[in-house]
Amino acid sequence: MAVNLQKGQKVDLTKGNAGLKNLMIGLGWDEVQRKRGFFSAKPAEIDCDASVFILRNGKLHGVGDVVYFGNLKHSSGSVQHMGDNLTGGGDGDDEQIMIALDKVPSDCDRIVFVVNIYQALQRKQHFGMIQNAFIRIVDAGSRQELCKYNLSDSYESMTAMIFGEVYRHGGEWKFSAIGEATRDPDLTSLIRRYA
Question: pTM, whole model, 2 decimals?
Answer without folding.
Answer: 0.91
